[in-house]
Sequence to fold (172 residues):
Amino acid sequence: MSEPKFVYVTYIATTPEKLWQALTDGAFTERYWFGTRIKSDWTLGADVTFLRNDQVYDSGKLLECDPPRRLSYTWSVKSHEEFRGERPSRVTFEIETMTAAGGKKTEVKLTVTHDDFDVGSKVLAAVSGGWPVVLASLKSFLETGEALEIAGIGALQAAKERALAAARGATA
Fold:
């Protein structure tokens, strides 16, 4: 049986440096991640905290930091009782420069892998609905200067409600 994980690949018209900043700078994440501000000093083993309205939403520990190529941290859900009992999972961002004909570096390939889940993880179901919305908003933000708003928030809320309903059903 294969290891439970979520993998998402997207191509973004930006530079690796701008994408790195968007992933690690709280002022950026707050704009495309629907009010979520990431906070860390980005040294190995450091806390990685996700804040909404100045309250800790989720948290983790920094595992790898290789700007602007690879970022990895653990992920522990703090915001919902249904997910708190699970051990931390891991999320990894891999950034690859895509070189166009003629040598122009105009795009990056972003691969997000969220893994290290236990079989039957409720968090896996939640992030599988959440990451596509967050990453679509990130792509929009970097390419147009505008994050997703109405559609993004609605899709994120619907994904969260589905994950919570499934988690509650699994515990009943």
